[in-house]
Amino acid sequence: MKKMKVINKNVRKAILIIVLGCSFSACKSITIAEKKVNIKAPQKFQNSDDSLNSANLNWKLFFHDVDLISLIDSALVNNQELNSVSQELQIARNEVQARKGEYLPFVGFGTNADVEKVGRYTSKGSSEATTEIKPGKATPEPLPNFNLGFHASWEIDIWHKLRNAKKSAYSKYLGSVEARKFLVTNLVAEISNSYYELLALDNQLRIVEQNVEIQNNALKIVKLEKEATRVTELAVKKFEAEVFYTKSLQFEIKQKIIETENRINFLLGRFPQKVNRNSENFSNYVPDTVFLGLPSHLLENRADIKQAEIFLQASSLDIKVAKAQFLPSVKLNAGLGLQAFNPVFLLKAPESLLYSLAGDLVSPLINRNAIKTAYFNANSKQIQAVYSYEKTILNAFIEVTNQMFNIQNLNESYKLKEQQVQALNQSIEISTNLFKSAKADYMEVLLTQRDALESKFDLIETKMLQMHAEVNLYRALGGGWK
User: Fold this and answer.
1) CA 351 to CA 356: how far, in whole Å?
2) What count of Cα atoms within 13 Å lies in the side-chain half-sphere of residue 22?
3) Burial label, 216 (beta-carbon count in 10 A; 0-12, 13-18, 19+)
4) Does 258 have pLDDT greater than 80?
5) Mean per-residue pLDDT over the chain, rounded
6) Strand pairing class (137-138; 353-362)
7) Is 157's pLDDT higher than 90?
8) Which residues does residue 137 pair with via DSSP β-bridges, in sequence order?
9) Model confidence pLDDT, tens digit, residues 166-202
10) CA–CA distance, 336 with 281 (Å, rounded to integer)
11) Is it the case that residue 7 has pLDDT exceeding 60?
C-alpha cells in the first residue's frame, strides 16, 4: 500500500512536469518578434533655428481678442463632444480599477438554505438511514441544510498576466487623456478660425455696402450723360444691372455670416444667437510671430503623438498578456463557515464548523486556437501601433512645415494685393473722369469697379488666411490644450 502511494506521487509529479514542459515549449515555439519603431525625426525644422516654442503658451496668452477668449472659455465648458470624451476618460479609469481588482483575492460572504430528499436505495440515502443523530433516531427526512460563511478565491499572478493587463488598461487611460487634449487643441483652433472668418465676412459686407454707394453715384453720372445724349439707354441699364448684382452679394454674405455664427454656437453648445465680436480693425490685424522650437518639443507637445506612443506601449503589454495565456494558471479557493441541518446547531462548534482549501493548476494543452488567435491578433495590433506612431510623427512634421511656409507666402501675397487694391481704387477715379470727358466708354468704368470690388474681397480673404495660418501653426505645434 505504501509502495502504491509512492507510485501515485511520482505519477502526479510526472504529469505536472509534462504539463509545464508542454506549456513552455508550445509558448516558445510560436514566439513572434515585435516590430520596432523605424523613424528618425530631423534635428531642426527647415529654415528655422528657434529655441522658443509658441506651443508652450497657454491659449489665453496666445490670443489677444477678448471676445474670442470668452468664446473659447465657454466652449471648453459646454461643448458636447468634449464632455462626451470626458465620460470616456471615466470609463477608461474604471477599467483600470477593474483590472487592478483581478489580481487581488476575491472574498465574499454568503448564506443559503435548502432541503434535499435522496432516494433510499442510493449510497447517500442508505448511509443517511443508518446514521443516528440521537440513540434510536435516524437522520431527518427530508434533510434541510443551512450554511453560513465566507468564501475566497485568488489567481496567483505568476506570469504577471493580470498585472500587465492592468498596466495596459492604465496606458489606454493615459491615451484617452491625450485624446482629450488633442480634441481641446482642435476645438480651440476651430473656434478661432471660424471667428476670424466671421470678422472677414463682416468686412466684406462693409465693402459691398460701400461699393453699392460708389456704383449708385456712377449710375447718376451715367443718367446725366444720357440726358446729354452722350450715352445710350444701354449704358444706363448696364450700370443698373451692376448695382443690382452688387446688392445681391450682400444677402449671400449675410447668409454666410449666419451660418458661421451658428457653427460657433454649435461648438459652444448653445442655440443660435448673435456672436459678440469687434470686426472694425480686422484689416489692421498683424499676425503674431509663431516660434517653432525644436522637433523634440513637437514630440512632447503634440497630444496625438503622445497618444500614439502610449498606445504603442499598451500594445506591447497586450502581447505579454496574450502570451501568458499559454502558461499554466494557479488558482486557490478557500471557504470558512458554519453548516448544519438545523439552525440551532449552527452555533455548536466545532461540530458545525466547515472549512475548505483547494488549489488548481490548469494549463491549455489541446485545441488552443482561441489563445493562438488572440496572440497573433495582439502582435498584429502592435505592428499597427508602430505604423500609426510613425505616421502620426510624419504627419505632424508635414503640418508644421506646410503652415510655416504658408505664413511666409501669405505675407508676401498680402503685400502685393494691397498694392493691387490701391491701384484699382485709383483706376476707379481715373476711369470715371475719363468717362465724363468721353475718353473712356462705360464698360471700362464697370469692369474697373468690379475688379476693384474683387480685389478688396481677395485682400480681406488673404488677411483671414493669414490669421488661419497663425492658428493652424499653433495647433500643428501642439498648442491650445495647456
Assistant:
1) 15
2) 13
3) middle
4) yes
5) 84
6) unpaired
7) no
8) 134
9) 888 888 888 889 999 999 999 999 999 999 999 999 9
10) 80
11) no
d(CA 65, CA 224): 48
- Cell digits of residue 326: 499559454
CA distances to 213, 431, 459 from 243, in Å? 9, 17, 22
Write b or e for each residue in 336-355: b if 16 or more Cβ atoms lie within 10 A of its Cβ, otherwise e. ebbbbbeeeebeeeeebeee
Q: What is the pLDDT of residue 127?
A: 67
Q: Which long-range contacts (CB under 8 A, 24 or more apart) does 254-259 make?
A: 254/205, 256/201, 257/198, 257/201, 257/202, 257/205
CB 191 within 8 A of CB 254: no
Residues β-bridged to residue 138: 132
Closest CA relative to residue 336, chosen from 471, 153, 122: 153
pLDDT at 138: 55
Q: Which amino acid is at 158?
A: I
For the whole model, what pTM was predicted? 0.81
Q: Which three cell numbers stand for residue 283?
A: 484689416
Evaluate the CA torsion angle 277, 282, 285, 287 in order and state its sign.
Answer: positive
The answer to whether the peptide bond before residue 140 is cis (omega within 30 degrees of 0) is no
Q: 3-state class of 423 per DSSP?
A: helix
User: Rounded mean pLDDT of 35-52?
Assistant: 76
